[in-house]
Amino acid sequence: MNTIPDFKTYSFSVAKRFMQYVQINTQSNPFSQTIPSSAGQKTLGQLLVKELQTLGLQAEMDAYGYVYATLPSNQSHAVPVICFCAHMDTSPDCSGENVKPIVHANYQGQDIILPDDPTQVIRMTDFPELQQQIGNDIITASGTTLLGADDKSGIAIIMDALQYWMSHPDQPHGEIRILFTVDEEIGRGVDHVDLQKLAAHAAYTLDGETVGHIEIENFCADSIVVHLHGRSAHTGYAKDKMINAVKLAANLISSLPANMAPETTTGKQGFIHPLHIQGQAETTSLQFLIRHFEENGLIELENLLETLVKNIVQAYPGASYIWERHIQYRNMKYILDQHPQVVQYAEEAIHRAGLTPVYHPIRGGTDGARLSYMGLPCPNLFTGQHAFHSKREWISIQDMQKAVETIIHLAQIWTERTQKSADDA
Q: CB 3.0 to 4.6 Å from 182: which of 36, 38, 105, 333, for a disulfide?
């Protein structure tokens, strides 16, 4: 017999947990060589281990800062192990130090002026999603930092679901693994994940945006580093001798197609993004992010960029270049299409939570994309976060609660489908 989850009498802990977690600075550092890249991630990890153990669960943090935990199955029949995953770090794009979360209760459509910097205003005209938040409780930061909903909302959602399962032992679920990762924002999120320790059949990251969204496709991504080599000479005697690599780099940047930039593309359009430049007259190095939803499209963009490089170098006899290609991640849809039930169960769980499932492509990447290619199919589910990586980041308490409901339904669906298969056999 199916047990319908009772949320009307449940006292959600997700908002309280979230507001505690965001006050710990876990901003990752792309220039650090440590694992994790910032000490605050382990500070949060240690707190989460204690909370998990207090709930009565087995939990540990390994040397890399990853947090693992296990909720034992309460079923008599075998149920595939599923994993829920979120990342502990916040983006280096905006300060995560001294975050002051603020609850704007019973939102009625007004502009939200952030008190520590009144120039930071959250307006419905800028965020049409706020039209669906009338009467809800909005959490923001104070105006000088990001909030950290990306992805501490995912952590809080998973923790609240665990509290629900522990306080409702009759709610059916199989064995559930928990994974909290580090350094996702700088592309290292699953570099050292122990898949044997997880031993999961499927996983779900809680790192998505609008309520009801399922994300099953993302960019294919490479990083290209171009080293432009010129020729140095004394500036007073440089005529017909110097080849200025800084100017080569400037010419390369100015030759990029204007309609292939992050700021001019949307949907499934790819882009070439100059991310970092460093050098001097003799040698200048540039890092580019290349993004496209199809791998063939990714290669076309890379070929275009290299053609531009060659044209510029050829215009300066004596100049040369070195090309480095670093594969980052690929579209998880290629993998998830081979495991349709993993996505179908998530869609049904969203329906059971009273929401309309919406498939939304990610113009970015997730831990789930890389996990999928490591053999663990892993779509991304909504948390309700908006305007991530910015001072105007916001989330509603009610959307987080709906995410808690969704993953509780999802665990139940896995048990039901497994029982039906056993009964049919």
A: 36
Task: Name 367's Cβ contacts closer than 8 Å, sequence gap at least 6.
Answer: 85, 87, 181, 184, 189, 190, 205, 207, 378
Instruction: Choose among 401, 388, 410: nearest CA to 149.
Output: 388
In a domain, 1, yes or no: no
**9 falls within a domain:** no
State the greatest distance between any 2 C-alpha atoms of the chain, in Å, as a whole number.
Answer: 88
Tell me the per-residue pLDDT of 396-417, one tens digit each, with 9 for 90 and over.
999 999 999 999 999 999 999 9
pLDDT at 3: 77
Total domain count for the chain?
2
For the segment 19-30, the average pLDDT, to the nearest whole number, is: 97
Domain residue limits at 260: 220-328
In angstroms, the CA 351 to CA 212 distance is: 9
Choosing from 289, 310, 328, the residue where a domain stops is 328
Distance CA 25, CA 31 (A): 17
Which of 272, 304, 328 is where one domain is finished? Answer: 328
Q: Which residues are catalytic?
A: 89, 184
